[in-house]
C-alpha cells in the first residue's frame, strides 16, 4: 500500500487533488493489475506533525502561493518522503522549478498531467522512498508437484523458530491444503482471508490476525495461514483481489519476522504478484529427468518477474539413487536459465525414512528426522545465508532430544515438564527382573530403589521386556513412533 498525504491550505483544493487521484482508477483494469492500493489522507498544514510519515506528500499550489516557505517546513517534517508539488501556471518557469527544488520538492505535477502519467510518477517516487520492513517473505517453489515443496516449507519454518524467529507459514495449495492438513492445523480453509480478498471485511490488523492459527497450541511464535475456500478471481489480473492480498501481506509483514509461502497451486497473476513482493525464492529440484524441463521453465519465468533485490536459490531435495548426476543437473539448469551457478546449493537435503512419515502427524519434517538428517539440513540452510551468523540455533543434541520427547508426551496428553526433566537426568539404565523396564540410577547410587519411567510402559512403541539402552538418544528416537 502506498500512503499519500495531500497538504493544502483549503479543503476545496485538497478535495480537487483527491478527485484527480481517484479518477486515475478509471483506467483499463489491465493497466492496474499490479498497481498497489493507495491510502489517501487530506491534511491541513497544521495537522502534518500529528500524522505518521507517508510515502508521498502532494503539496497543493494554494499553500505555496500564500507562503512558499511552508514547503521547507514540510521537508523538515518528512525528510525521507517524496514531495510532489501540484503546480498551476504560476510555477511553470524554470527558475521557479529550481527554487522549489531547493526548498525540498522532488517533482512537479503540472495541471495538464494525464492520469497514466500521474500514476507512473507515484509508482517511481514511492519505490525510491525509504521503506522499513520488519519481516522476510520467502517463496518455496518447484517446477512440478511431488518434489518436496511442502515438506521443506514446514521444516524451514521450524528451523527459523529454533533460531528465535516468529514465523508464519502460508498455504497456497487451494485444492488440497496439504500444508495445513499435514500439520493438523485446523481449520483447513480460511473464510476470513477470502473476505479480505473480496473486500467484504476491512484490511486491518485485528481482522488479519483472525486469518492465522497456531501450528502448535502451546507455541505463540509459529503460525500457519490456510488458503481461502474459493477465490478464483485471485488468479485473474483484471480485478482488485491481488492488490487486497498484497495489503494483507503488508500487515503480516509487521507481525512476523519470517513469512514462508508454499506456493502450491498458485498460478497466473497470483504467481507473478508473489514474485514481485518476495524477498527470497527457494526453488526445489531433484535429479529426476522427468522434472528437468518443468524446473527450467519455471525458474526462467521467475527470473523475469522477480524483484531485482530478491535472492534466488536452487535446492536439491532427496536425490534419487538412479537419477541424473547432480553436477550435470546443476550445469544444465545454470546454462538453460542463465542463473549463476553459485545460486545452486551444492549440499543436498537427503532422504530420511523417519522424516518422510511427517504428513498428518502434526509435526514437521525436521521434528521427525533423525540426527543425521538434522545435521545435513542445518548445513543446507547455513549455505543459504538467511540466518544471522551471530545467532546460534538451538540445535545442540540435548535440546533436539528434549524437543522430540516433549512432542511425544504432548501427543499422549501427559504433563511434559516432569518428563523433560526425566530425559535430561536419566541417562543410564540397567535391567531389573521384577520390572518391565530398567530404571535409572537417579543419584549415582546403585542401591537406590529402581522404578519404571512413568507413562512409557503403556506406550505401543515399546515391547514388554527389559531395556538395555545406554543412551537417552535411542530412547527418544524409539519413543517417536506415531501410534
UniProtKB/TrEMBL annotation:
Name of the featured protein: MinD/ParA family protein
Q: Which Pfam families match?
A: AAA_31
What sequence ranges are listed for the domain AAA? 137-291
Q: Which domain of life is it from?
A: Bacteria
- Lineage of the organism: Bacteria, Deltaproteobacteria, SAR324 cluster
Which InterPro entries does the record match to this protein? AAA_dom (IPR025669), DNA_Partitioning_ATPase (IPR050678), P-loop_NTPase (IPR027417)
Amino acid at each position: 500500500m502506498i500512503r499519500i498525504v495531500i497538504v493544502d491550505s483549503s479543503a476545496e483544493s485538497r478535495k480537487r487533488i483527491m478527485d484527480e487521484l481517484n479518477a486515475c482508477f478509471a483506467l483499463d483494469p489491465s493497466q492496474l493489475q499490479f498497481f498497489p492500493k493507495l491510502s489517501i489522507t487530506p491534511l491541513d498544514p497544521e495537522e502534518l506533525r500529528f500524522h505518521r510519515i507517508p510515502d508521498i506528500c502532494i503539496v497543493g499550489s494554494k499553500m505555496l502561493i500564500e507562503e512558499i516557505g511552508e514547503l521547507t517546513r514540510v521537508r523538515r517534517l518528512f525528510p525521507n518522503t517524496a514531495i510532489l508539488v501540484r503546480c498551476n501556471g504560476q510555477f511553470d518557469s524554470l527558475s521557479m522549478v529550481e527554487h522549489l527544488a531547493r526548498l525540498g520538492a522532488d517533482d512537479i505535477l503540472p495541471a495538464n498531467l494525464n492520469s497514466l502519467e500521474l500514476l507512473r510518477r507515484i509508482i517511481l517516487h514511492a519505490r525510491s522512498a525509504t521503506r522499513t520492513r520488519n519481516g522476510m517473505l520467502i517463496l518455496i517453489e518447484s517446477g512440478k508437484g511431488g518434489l518436496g515443496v511442502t515438506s521443506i516449507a514446514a521444516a524451514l519454518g521450524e528451523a527459523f523458530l529454533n533460531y528465535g524467529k516468529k514465523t508464519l507459514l502460508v498455504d497456497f495449495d487451494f485444492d488440497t491444503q496439504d500444508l495445513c492438513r499435514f500439520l493438523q492445523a485446523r481449520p483447513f480453509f480460511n473464510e476470513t482471508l477470502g473476505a479480505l480478498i473480496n473486500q467484504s471485511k476491512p484490511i486491518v490488523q485485528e481482522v488479519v490476525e483472525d486469518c492465522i492459527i497456531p501450528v502448535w497450541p502451546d507455541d505463540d511464535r509459529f503460525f500457519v495461514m490456510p488458503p481461502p475456500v474459493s477465490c478464483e478471481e485471485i488468479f485473474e489480473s483484471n480485478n482488485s483481489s491481488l492488490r487486497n492480498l498484497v495489503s494483507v501481506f503488508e500487515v503480516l509483514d509487521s507481525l512476523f519476522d519470517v513469512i514462508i509461502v508454499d506456493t502450491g497451486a498458485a498460478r497466473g497473476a497470483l504467481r507473478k504478484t508473489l514474485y514481485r513482493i518476495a524477498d527470497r525464492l527457494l526453488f526445489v529440484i531433484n535429479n529426476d529427468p522427468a522434472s528437468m524441463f518443468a524446473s527450467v521453465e519455471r525458474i526462467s519465468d521467475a527470473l523475469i518477474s522477480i524483484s531485482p533485490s530478491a535472492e534466488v536459490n536452487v535446492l536439491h531435495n532427496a536425490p534419487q539413487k538412479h537419477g541424473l548426476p547432480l553436477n550435470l543437473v546443476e550445469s544444465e539448469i545454470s546454462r538453460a536459465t542463465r542463473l549463476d551457478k553459485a545460486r545452486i546449493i551444492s549440499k543436498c537435503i537427503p532422504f530420511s525414512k523417519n522424516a518422510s512419515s511427517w504428513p498428518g502427524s502434526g509435526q514437521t519434517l525436521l521434528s521427525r528426522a533423525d540426527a543425521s538428517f538434522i545435521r545435513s539440513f542445518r548445513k543446507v540452510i547455513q549455505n543459504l545465508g538467511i540466518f544471522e551468523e551471530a545467532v546460534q540455533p538451538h540445535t545442540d543434541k540435548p535440546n533436539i532430544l528434549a524437543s522430540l520427547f516433549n512432542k511425544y508426551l504432548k501427543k499422549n496428553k501427559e504433563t511434559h515438564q516432569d518428563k523433560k526433566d526425566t530425559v535430561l537426568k536419566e541417562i543410564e539404565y540397567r535391567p531389573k527382573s521384577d520390572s518391565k523396564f530398567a530404571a535409572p540410577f537417579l543419584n549415582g547410587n546403585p542401591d537406590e530403589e529402581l522404578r519404571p519411567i512413568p507413562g512409557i510402559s503403556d506406550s505401543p512403541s515399546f515391547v514388554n521386556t527389559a531395556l538395555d539402552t545406554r543412551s537417552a538418544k535411542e530412547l527418544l528416537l524409539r519413543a517417536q513412533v506415531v501410534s
